[in-house]
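Friendly challenge for the regulars: who can give me the structure tokens for this chain first? No prize, just bragging rights.
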Amino acid sequence: MNAPTPPVKAGATRSKTRSRLLNLGRIVLSVGLLAWILSTAGLAQLAEAARRADLRLYGLALAVAFAGIFVRSLRWQWLLKAVGAQVPFRRVVYLYFIGSFFNTFLPTGFGGDVVRVLEIGPGATSDQAAGTALVDRLSGFIILFVLALVSLPFSYRLLPASLSVLISLMALAVLAGSGLLFEGRLLRRLTAWLPRSLSLAGDAWIGKTYAVITACGRRGVAGALFWSLVFNLLQILANVLVARALGVTVSAWVFFMSVPLTTAVLLVPISISGFGVREGVYVALFAQLGVGTALALALSLATYALDFATGLAGGLVYFGAGLLGLRRKQ
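First reply, four minutes later:
Bragging rights claimed.
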């Protein structure tokens, strides 16, 4: 008579099955949405939009996208120094490139952040890496939505009223949540009654990570916000350059609103690398501005290609370091 399957093994099997089904669902969703949008836009019109593109402007957008990697590296190193970690800048750039690779090719947009933490190497503890990586990502969101709010008086007439309200509510939620997170004392009090493994006031991993977040201090957060401002302006500039390369002449203010919206949507892991979802957002958004489906789809794919290029470069760096034995061991 066969022995019963151990509960742990059965649980692991069920977890793997759920993971495979979720990934299959994401693939089906991505393929289905892309197929539907392509059928609506027409391959011939899409090819014509690509043929007419100004490659010089697109090349400039690509250069701006790569510059963004170095700016974000400066932001993370600033935060690491704020908590006493000593990680060389070249190492931080390397980690950001490989993070870009995993963010591009994993189902969600923050898988690369986990890889950055796991591969931090000497000079920083895992708690320091995790805490500063969270502040690093959050500071980008704060500035992105601040820019959206600042641009609202100039762009609200260009977008549907419901979309302007949605972006405003998202921005206010991000700002309020960030203020609560950085304040520290209130969240520690609110979670003090929770089990040690979940309490922000405890000495478990989550408590230690939160201690790093609050240890960044005003100077550390202020510096991160500055570099986030530089990065997000570069990101918006890259989007504008891609639009101009394709002949899309909508106001540049539109991108101060559209970039935060698409960034937030892509963090939800419902598709593979945002395929289908990103294109749907672009088509729906730019249709309100009189941009045809084919051109909006071309704009979405061309913008994604910038992330794909930096992600591919990160993949080459990562696997090249592995082949040459240059990847640090933990």
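The two ends are 44 Å apart (CA to CA). Residues 200 and 210 are 6 Å apart (CA to CA). Your move, everyone else.
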